[in-house]
Design brief:
The chain is an alpha+beta fold. Helices cover 60% and strands 21% of the residues. The protein has nine helices and six strands.
Length: 220
């Protein structure tokens, strides 16, 4: 029976690692090691929950719920997932990775229960979903970016804003500050925009050459 348990936790770790590799490739908050450990840990908890107290049940008049420990994995994984979610510059990041960890824990529980086909099919569906959506999003989706640039005059800032509006780029937030230096005034604008991914590289980076005196200070 011990060999069967080892097979279950190994398969759970491998399946979790497969999902983690996809997240690692996309440079997300949680990668291979995190998903590997979540799948492994969930399977161990499932095995322990179902079989860890067989000696007590056989020797005493005790009734135990086989789902008592495994049930805590569902809520407990939320703490790890919450650590992946970041709210930054009016944008929420990490929700997909947090959901991936949640599904990985479910796959680990399925492996711990001996439901190998269900766990494998779930892994295939997760990876297919993540990869397909990523490909579609790269071609048709939008990207939220933060741009900070400076200009010697207010007119320079307005010129950039006019060009952005002509390109039909949505400005989510905007802030401009004036700095007084020994060389004269300098104006800095910080904005959060939603840009089509196919135009991201060619349009945003072209600000470096299109406008005289415009300096990009930060681009995220």
């Amino acid at each position: 029976m011990t060999q069967e348990f080892i097979l279950r936790i190994v398969l759970a770790a491998v399946l979790g690692g497969i999902i983690g590799l996809e997240r690692e490739y996309r440079a997300k908050e949680a990668g291979f090691r995190t998903h590997f450990l979540v799948g492994l840990g969930a399977a161990v908890f499932m095995v322990l929950s179902k079989y860890g107290y067989d000696d007590v049940v056989k020797t005493e008049l005790v009734r135990l719920d086989p789902s008592r420990i495994a049930a805590q994995v569902v809520s407990g994984i939320g703490f790890i997932g919450a650590g992946c979610i970041i709210f930054q510059r009016h944008v929420v990041r990490g929700l997909t990775t947090a959901a991936g960890l949640w599904v990985t824990s479910a796959i680990g529980l399925a492996c711990g229960s001996g439901m190998y086909v269900l766990a494998t099919a779930s892994t295939v569906l997760v990876v297919a979903c993540l990869e397909t959506v990523s490909l579609l999003h790269n071609h048709f989706g939008a990207k939220n970016i933060s741009l900070t640039f400076s200009a010697p005059t207010r007119e320079g800032i307005r010129e950039v804003l006019t060009t952005i509006e002509k390109d039909k780029i949505d400005i989510l937030s905007y802030e401009m500050k004036a700095h007084h230096t020994s060389d004269g005034d300098r104006y800095t604008a910080t904005m959060c925009m939603k840009v089509k991914r196919e135009h991201y590289q060619q349009r945003i980076m072209s600000f470096m050459t299109e406008f005289e005196g415009i300096t990009i200070d930060n681009l995220e």
